[in-house]
Design brief:
mainly alpha; 345 residues
């Protein structure tokens, strides 16, 4: 009840801060909901900053002493994950507000908000995003991170579609969203998604350590390395858009797929079992991928864009199953390592 009370006060505080900052930033002539000079971009920036601050405050309030007994290397990994999550919550909140503003801009064409009205809208957006971020600081599971990654990719891609410079981008592939005046939306989504993927990997390593202990640290370290490398490759797809460096962009895209498969295989071999639900999902996803490739390549039933969407969706489905199975096996209590160094026992 104390945590719920804190969460309510956090929501109220985020609303007041967001409304005040939004009104100050939007002061002047009335603005449209979406587009150039609109309410959307300032509101998104304010909501993103407040969500990040809410997560930081909640983490210090609820998990401050969690790492006291951990060795230095374990605290560094935990702190790095917290920084990555702070960036991710800011990105998710900002893109969510931008997507909502674009949708409302279509449905409410011609509507303009004065500074106070825009401030209240900003306050509501800040309250919602701040409440979610505050709850994550209380206790964040690996499965929650996977859901956050999936949600963020959907929100970012939808916003990139709505603001794409080329309305016929879907005739080629998803990389076309990273070209043109609105390319920052898609490319930025991939960069933050890469950070989130690497963070999911560190949390998977945390869960495996809680299950297996220090004796498996060598294998767990390789699991984390592969997941972080997958996230780095995914971020590279956004950092090197197709219109600038095609070769590097394609290498990053292929590397993301290869590293994802390698990380998934190694994680499955390291974890106990592997459990039956994960095996069933793996077999099902593999069969569906084969069918999808055959239908696209042999029968030419759909475009490369559709095939990419199928591959990404099935990959996220498999990852969701993996982390949910890990959640069943993982103790909730933190497990400080008895090793003073990660490389030496």
């Amino acid at each position: 009840m104390r945590r719920e009370t804190r969460a309510i006060w956090a929501t109220v505080s985020c609303f007041l801060l967001g409304a005040g900052a939004g009104t100050a930033v939007l002061w002047g002539n009335p603005r449209p909901i979406a587009g150039d000079g609109s309410v959307g971009i300032p509101a998104a920036m304010v909501a993103g900053v407040i969500a990040a601050a809410s997560f930081v405050v909640s983490t210090f309030l609820h998990r401050r002493g969690e790492h006291a007994a951990m060795p230095h290397w374990q605290r560094i990994i935990s702190a790095s994950s917290a920084v990555a999550l702070t960036i991710a919550f800011a990105g998710v909140s900002a893109l969510g507000v931008l997507l909502a503003s674009e949708v409302l801009g279509v449905g409410l064409q011609g509507v303009e908000l004065p500074a106070l009205g825009g401030g209240i809208v900003t306050g509501v957006a800040s309250a919602v995003s701040g409440r979610l971020a505050f709850g994550a600081g209380i206790g964040l599971r690996t499965a929650d991170l996977a859901t956050l990654l999936f949600t963020y990719l959907v929100i970012g891609t939808l916003f990139a579609m709505l603001t794409a410079a080329d309305p016929q981008w879907w005739e080629t592939n998803f990389s076309q969203l990273g070209i043109g005046s609105g390319a920052w939306a898609f490319n930025g989504t991939l960069v933050v998604a890469g950070i989130l993927t690497g963070t999911v990997g560190t949390y998977i390593g945390r869960d495996l350590h809680r299950i297996l202990g220090d004796g498996a640290l060598g294998r767990i370290a390789w699991v984390v390395v592969l997941w972080v490398a997958t996230g780095a490759a995914l971020a590279g797809v956004g950092l090197f858009p197709q219109e600038n460096i095609v070769v590097v962009h394609n290498i990053a895209a292929v590397s993301t797929l290869v590293l994802f498969v390698a990380a998934g295989v190694l994680t499955t071999t390291v974890m106990p079992g592997p459990p039956q639900p994960l095996l069933m999902t793996t077999v099902g996803v593999a069969l569906l991928l084969i069918i999808a490739f055959v239908l696209a390549d042999v029968f030419d039933l759909y475009s490369l864009t559709v095939l990419e969407a199928i591959v990404i969706g099935l990959g996220l489905l498999w990852l969701t199953t993996l982390v949910r199975v890990l959640a069943v096996l993982t103790p909730e209590i933190a497990r400080p390592s008895a090793r003073g160094s990660l490389l030496h026992g």
